[in-house]
């Protein structure tokens, strides 16, 4: 049985690119992977930047905040844009535009110019919203959580890989005799160039929906939700739904903390355990590498809980993962022995990424006429959480104290997540859609 091109896929054929759904699956995760590579490529090299630009702890805190601050606004805008013009053009434009500050950060020669470049790079973090939107419109309710979690998780993997690869790229240029100042600058050209090329490939390699591009659908279906009036009305209905903002908080508590750890992990291990930048980068990279399977687990179990307990089951699973994440983060903050710190960091990473997958196993069902708007608002929550956490790291708290406070807040967010509720009608609509798709697949 093959996946029908014109309808949502009810399964994931991982090793296939013959259908538009599976081409989208693979294009989205790889594009997001490269975005993460560009977004956090400078993080493991901050030891060298700190020395060259004579940055203080407060200035580094400001840089951490800048790297995620603009993404809050960018994710809100890109969510609406996906509903309006479609994910294909939105992603292509974002990749190409975002590649420019990634390569351009090498021109920074002061704290202010570096801060501005780091702020501009943050726009590529909006790529997450398009990734989730594109898979949400391509896959059916029984697998959409798994599809969303896997594409996002494999994309987030870029956050771990960059911790390991960027010091190697730095060393490559240094081995050819370039100074430290030039080596970190040349290293950042690599992820920037990759983003630019991916933007071109995404435009020609994907389509907006299983049935075609938005421009084609609008002509044949005037009431299509990407229409001018409908897109604004749907966006308004999304932001008026309290459930969207509860999920905003939940995602702030998981993805927001992952972004924070990506920014500070290498410095944390250098300063706390007196490791070399290369060794610290390798250890910090373990945190991101859990994305190869952990976020997928969050989505898979979200779908399983959903099939057995309805939409409320997805919410229950989300609360469980957030509670586990918070508890292991509290433990990580108290570790004084390197091996124990690494072990608790890995367990914390497992739960933080499962919580992310669990969140976006719920998102596609909150407002099914405005998937982009909901994804944008909830996705912005992740960056809002990172901004809030960033203020703790620039203040008078030690890294250990800041992590402890964040862990306690994450546990509290698990209780907040349980406030999300779905109606009988919403559950019935999901079941009807799935049954229809399964019948069509069997024909």
TrEMBL record:
<dbReference type="InterPro" id="IPR044772">
    <property type="entry name" value="NO3_transporter"/>
</dbReference>
<dbReference type="InterPro" id="IPR036259">
    <property type="entry name" value="MFS_trans_sf"/>
</dbReference>
<keyword id="KW-0812">Transmembrane</keyword>
<feature type="transmembrane region" description="Helical">
    <location>
        <begin position="90"/>
        <end position="108"/>
    </location>
</feature>
<keyword id="KW-0813">Transport</keyword>
<dbReference type="GO" id="GO:0042128">
    <property type="term" value="P:nitrate assimilation"/>
</dbReference>
<feature type="transmembrane region" description="Helical">
    <location>
        <begin position="402"/>
        <end position="424"/>
    </location>
</feature>
<dbReference type="InterPro" id="IPR011701">
    <property type="entry name" value="MFS"/>
</dbReference>
<feature type="transmembrane region" description="Helical">
    <location>
        <begin position="314"/>
        <end position="332"/>
    </location>
</feature>
<feature type="domain" description="Major facilitator superfamily (MFS) profile">
    <location>
        <begin position="24"/>
        <end position="425"/>
    </location>
</feature>
<feature type="transmembrane region" description="Helical">
    <location>
        <begin position="244"/>
        <end position="270"/>
    </location>
</feature>
<feature type="transmembrane region" description="Helical">
    <location>
        <begin position="154"/>
        <end position="179"/>
    </location>
</feature>
<dbReference type="InterPro" id="IPR020846">
    <property type="entry name" value="MFS_dom"/>
</dbReference>
<protein>
    <recommendedName>
        <fullName>Nitrate/nitrite transporter</fullName>
    </recommendedName>
</protein>
<feature type="transmembrane region" description="Helical">
    <location>
        <begin position="27"/>
        <end position="48"/>
    </location>
</feature>
<dbReference type="InterPro" id="IPR004737">
    <property type="entry name" value="NO3_transporter_NarK/NarU-like"/>
</dbReference>
<feature type="transmembrane region" description="Helical">
    <location>
        <begin position="282"/>
        <end position="302"/>
    </location>
</feature>
<feature type="transmembrane region" description="Helical">
    <location>
        <begin position="186"/>
        <end position="205"/>
    </location>
</feature>
<dbReference type="Pfam" id="PF07690">
    <property type="entry name" value="MFS_1"/>
</dbReference>
<feature type="transmembrane region" description="Helical">
    <location>
        <begin position="60"/>
        <end position="78"/>
    </location>
</feature>
<feature type="transmembrane region" description="Helical">
    <location>
        <begin position="115"/>
        <end position="134"/>
    </location>
</feature>
<keyword id="KW-0472">Membrane</keyword>
<dbReference type="GO" id="GO:0015112">
    <property type="term" value="F:nitrate transmembrane transporter activity"/>
</dbReference>
<dbReference type="GO" id="GO:0005886">
    <property type="term" value="C:plasma membrane"/>
</dbReference>
<comment type="similarity">
    <text>Belongs to the major facilitator superfamily. Nitrate/nitrite porter (TC 2.A.1.8) family.</text>
</comment>
<feature type="transmembrane region" description="Helical">
    <location>
        <begin position="370"/>
        <end position="393"/>
    </location>
</feature>
<feature type="transmembrane region" description="Helical">
    <location>
        <begin position="337"/>
        <end position="355"/>
    </location>
</feature>
<keyword id="KW-0534">Nitrate assimilation</keyword>
<dbReference type="GO" id="GO:0015113">
    <property type="term" value="F:nitrite transmembrane transporter activity"/>
</dbReference>
<keyword id="KW-1133">Transmembrane helix</keyword>
<keyword id="KW-1003">Cell membrane</keyword>
């Amino acid at each position: 049985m093959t996946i029908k091109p014109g309808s949502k896929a009810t399964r994931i054929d991982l090793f296939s690119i013959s259908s538009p759904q599976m081409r989208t699956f693979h294009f989205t995760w790889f594009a997001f992977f490269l975005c993460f590579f560009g977004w956090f490529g400078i993080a493991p090299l901050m030891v060298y930047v700190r020395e060259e630009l004579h940055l203080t702890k407060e200035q580094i805190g400001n840089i951490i905040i800048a790297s995620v601050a603009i993404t809050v606004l960018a994710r809100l805008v890109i969510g609406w844009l996906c509903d309006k013009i479609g994910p294909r053009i939105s992603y292509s434009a974002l990749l190409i535009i975002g590649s420019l500050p990634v390569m351009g950060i090498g021109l920074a020669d002061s704290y202010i110019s570096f801060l501005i470049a780091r702020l501009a790079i943050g726009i590529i973090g909006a790529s997450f919203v398009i990734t989730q939107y594109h898979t949400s419109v391509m896959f059916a309710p029984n697998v959409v959580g798994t599809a969303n979690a896997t594409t996002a998780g494999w994309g987030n993997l870029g956050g771990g890989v960059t911790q390991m690869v960027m010091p190697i790229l730095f060393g490559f240029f240094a081995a050819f005799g370039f100074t430290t100042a030039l080596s970190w600058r040349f290293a950042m050209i690599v992820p920037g160039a990759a983003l630019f090329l991916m933007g071109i490939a995404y435009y020609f390699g994907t389509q907006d929906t299983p049935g075609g591009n938005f421009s084609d659908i609008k002509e044949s279906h005037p009431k299509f939700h990407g229409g001018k009036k409908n897109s604004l009305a749907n966006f308004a209905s999304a932001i008026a739904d309290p459930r969207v903002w509860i999920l905003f908080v939940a995602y702030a508590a998981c993805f927001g903390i992952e972004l924070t750890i990506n920014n500070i992990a290498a410095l944390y291990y250098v300063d706390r355990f007196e490791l070399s930048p290369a060794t610290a980068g390798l250890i910090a990279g373990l945190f991101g590498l859990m994305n190869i399977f952990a976020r997928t687990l969050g989505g898979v179990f979200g779908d399983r809980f959903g099939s057995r307990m309805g939409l409320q089951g997805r919410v229950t699973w989300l609360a469980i993962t957030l509670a586990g994440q918070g508890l292991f983060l509290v433990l990580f903050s108290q570790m004084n022995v390197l091996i124990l710190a690494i072990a608790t960091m890995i367990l914390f990473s497992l739960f933080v990424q499962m919580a992310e997958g669990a969140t976006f196993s719920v998102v596609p069902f909150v407002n099914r006429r405005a998937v982009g708007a909901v994804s944008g608002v909830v996705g912005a929550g992740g960056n809002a959480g990172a901004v809030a956490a960033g203020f703790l790291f620039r203040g008078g708290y030690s890294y250990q104290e800041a992590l402890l406070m964040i862990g306690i807040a994450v546990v509290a967010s698990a209780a907040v997540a349980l406030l999300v509720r779905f109606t009988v009608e919403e559950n019935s609509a999901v079941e009807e859609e799935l049954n229809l798709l399964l019948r069509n697949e069997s024909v």
